[in-house]
Amino acid sequence: MTNEVDSELAAALLAALLDDDPEAPPVELRSAMLDRAQRRRPSGSWCGTLDPISPLEAFRRASAHLGDVLAVLGDDDWTRSARGDWTVKDLVAHLVGADEYTGAVLGLWASPVPDPRPTHAEATAPAMTRLAAAAPATVAAEWRRGVADLVARRADLTARLDDVVDLYGAQLPISDVLTVRAFEVWAHSEEIAAAAGLGLDAPEPERLALMSELAVRLLPFGLQLTHEQVPPGCARLVLTGAGGGSWDVPFTPELASAAPDVVVVLDVVEFCRHAAHGHLHAERIDEVEGDRTLVPPLLTGAAAFAE
Amino acid sequence: MTQAAPWPTDGAPCNERDLDARLAARIAAGDDLALGALYDRYGRLVYCLVRRVTGSASGAEDVTQDAFASLWEQIERFDTSRGSLKAYVCTIAYRRAVDWVRREASSARRAQAGAARAADTVDPPDAALTAHDLDRLRRALGELPGEQREAVVLAYYHGLTYRQVAERLGIPEGTAKSRLRLALARMRTTMTQGGRRP
Fold first, then answer.
1. Interface with A, mutate which of B14, B65, B133, B148 (most A CBs under 10 A)
2. Residues A16, A11: Cα–Cα separation, whole Å
3. Which end of chain A has less neighbouring CB within 10 Å, N or C?
4. Upstream peptide bond of A116 is cis (omega within 30 degrees of 0)
């Protein structure tokens, strides 16, 4: 199929355009068409073919990508500022701590989970302190070892993906914990790449699909966390590009089946960046239709879990 | 609270190609509201088109649904650099309409002859778009001033968007739009004077 129209189509098209008394299609044809379309491809789903991956595989891929980034860093790059006061080396040490804590939460090794449960920064502080004076190569090696230890528990983790654990105060199934970690590693990879002046590669669609789905699913909780009084409304979030999709996000549970008050369209990678870092530039939003007052709370809620 | 406008405004001026790209991206992301919007823009045209080709109201309904559902299913095949969404959905619809006419002709012959036969000899568009129609169109097109005829041929025979027509002719997009509007109005008048469609 091409976009070229042949001459017979052109004639028919012109004839239809020139018809001075065109017959209107039956009103019910619109809904019948939408029903037929949804039988062929459910609403919300991205049109391309994805080969779904597990959350652990997403974490492994994100870590492999970070490993590639670290491999090309020069000595000077490790001392560059990557996130606030943290250098590239601090950020990698932070990831060492995050892997250690994740393993403890998932019951993969003997170390106990501190009580009361620490915040994300508190959980990774011991590793950062321990590695503060270490050489970059040592930090990188420790990080690689921690990732390998987690990934090596594939069989155990795969068998327990639905088990619920406490991660920084949130009750999440292990599958979501691993997706959160994949998200975090990707976000820090981008920060490290940016600090070193390297280009930013978008994650592959399979990883983006997992990340965007989780970020959208957590959005109502993010709204609750960031607003004393959540405004009533329902937003359709349309995340374009491979690995994206469309979701209706009710701001409150009683609006679960409400029609969307606003449609917000943006690229899936930009949305994931916003969920990770929380500073979406307005010009990155491609389109807003409907009640624009709902957009700021939507964006605030989406970034509620940004570090 | 009224939000200042840091992001695109509802109904903001947008050229046809950008609008097509946005709709296609939304449809690719599974946004059925965008599919509904596409139908609202082109549903009537597609229906009239396939109604002419099939000569059947029920056939036109079936083919119109099928065309939009097919676009929804395979939107990744659409390429904004090669033409407009309007041309794309009309192309799908036209081809499905031709298939529909062939199937109907084949069924009718089987019913008459009592045996299945191939229907390769059918000239499908003639089933509803008659030679008389084509003559009138050709004549109306021939009577257009050269610059209008050129725009019509580019837009409807080569499937170019307004912007592409404008680029090809070296004129502003707005001029291309008004030239095409004038051309269609003039053709409509010529065809009305030449007798209504039988």
1. B65
2. 9
3. N
4. yes
User: CA-to-CA distance for B41 and A155, rounded, in angstroms?
Assistant: 52
* A293 residue type, one letter: T
Residue showing tokens 């725009």: B151
- The whole-model pTM stands at 0.81
Q: What is the residue whose two structure tokens read 């296609």?
A: B24
Q: Which of A46, A238, A268, A281 to mutate to test the interface with B (most CBs of B within 10 A)?
A: A238
SS3 call for B195: coil
Distance CA A109, CA A150 (A): 10
Judge contact between A235 and A202, C-beta under 8 A: no
Rama region for A47: left / alpha / beta (φ>0; ψ in -120 to 50; rest): alpha
- Which ipTM value was assigned to this complex? 0.87
According to DSSP, residue B161 is labeled -
CB atoms within 10 A of CB B113: 9
What CA–CA distance (Å, rounded) separates B196 from A165? 74
* 3-state SS class at B128: coil
Of A34, A238, A293, the CB nearest to B36: A34
Q: How far is B114 from chain A (nearest CA, A)?
A: 32
**B59 vs A: CB within 8 A:** no
Dihedral sign (CA B107, B111, B115, B119) = negative
pLDDT in tens, A254-271: 777 778 999 999 999 999
